[in-house]
Amino acid sequence: MGIRSCRLARNASLLLFACCVLVVAVYISLRARGIFLEHAGVTLTQDDVALAYEHAKEGSKTQYIPRIIHQIYHNWHDEDDPDNTTMPAKWKEARESCISLHKEWENILWTTKTSREFIEKKYPKFLKTYDGFRYPVQRVDALRYYLMRYYGGIYIDLDNGCRANLEPLLYYPTWTTDGGHGTLSNNILGAEPGHPFWELVTNSLKSYSWNYLLPYLTISYATGQWFLTDVWQTYHAKIKGKKEPPLTRIMMDMRPGAAPWTFFTATEGGSWNNWDNDVFGWIGSHLVIVVFGGAAALALQVAVFCLTWKVIKAYAGRRARYQRLQAKDVESTD
């Protein structure tokens, strides 16, 4: 291969590398935008839901969601007793606040034992994946999605309580909660049984269930909030232009000045926190800085690569010329 051909091959390789970097950067930016910044669906505050229910004409409302409240308690500190329901007092108090406001509803607490029995009986093909999750909280995440798919109802994390009766929330086929920044939340969910969104969610679990090295990434993107948000965006992309209506996001923004919480309360949670939660929490709160900083770092790496390649190429050229001159000097001496 001649010198010109070698140069063309090197330039082509460099161009291909730059194109690959650009494609990866664009892909990551688009996925990050969908997961962290702009969410599909209809946005409602809790006051919007309450007012819509109050002002609706009698007989004009269609109830989609059954009067069931699901909660999950897996006692990870007592694995010898998978039916243990002895929970921290703050969670018990939050749970009682919901039960007292919904005495006519079915209130179900799913333990480690009853959760696995449900998966084994109703979704046996998923049992191997369910048992194989690296972190126990992933089983809690997956279970809540399957409960929404099979039974429907309202799922509530144990670190959330009830401020008012949840009847007005039963008239939206499927909804999730939205903290107003970052990903959607999976702490409180509502569903009619068999809704196609929850079918897509549960059918996607196996393909997402990878170990992503860091605990927070594995939990969030394999089963948690990142996963749910990504599937939410996928679902809305699938129904775009079709007759299916968009789903609803109920706002639960805790920042000052945000819309009030009409239906729910919050207490201390974080039972699954790992060492990297604070790192990714900071990233989520400074996403714009991280995205632009990452893009700048990527551009700098490409620039350094190109400069290094150019220096090596120039050095190799000078060395080759020097060797040719040495060869000519030897010939002249001879």
* Approximate shape: elongated
Task: Note the run of SSEs as H and E.
Answer: HEHEHEHHHEEEEHHHEEHH
Strand order of the largest sheet: 1-8-6-7-4-2-3
CATH class: Alpha Beta
Structural class of the helices, strands and pairings? alpha/beta
Largest sheet: 7 strands, mixed
- Rg calc: 28 Å
Instruction: Count the beta strands.
Output: 9
In angstroms, what separates the terminal alpha carbons? 31 Å
Residue windows where pLDDT falls under 50 for at least 5 positions = 24-30, 272-280, 282-288
CATH topology: Spore Coat Polysaccharide Biosynthesis Protein SpsA, Chain A
Tell me the helix content: 40-55%
Helical run tally: 11
Q: Can you tell me the number of structural domains? A: 1
GO molecular function: mannosyltransferase activity
Pfam families: Gly_transf_sug (PF04488)
Transmembrane segments: 12-30, 287-312
Organism: Moelleriella libera RCEF 2490
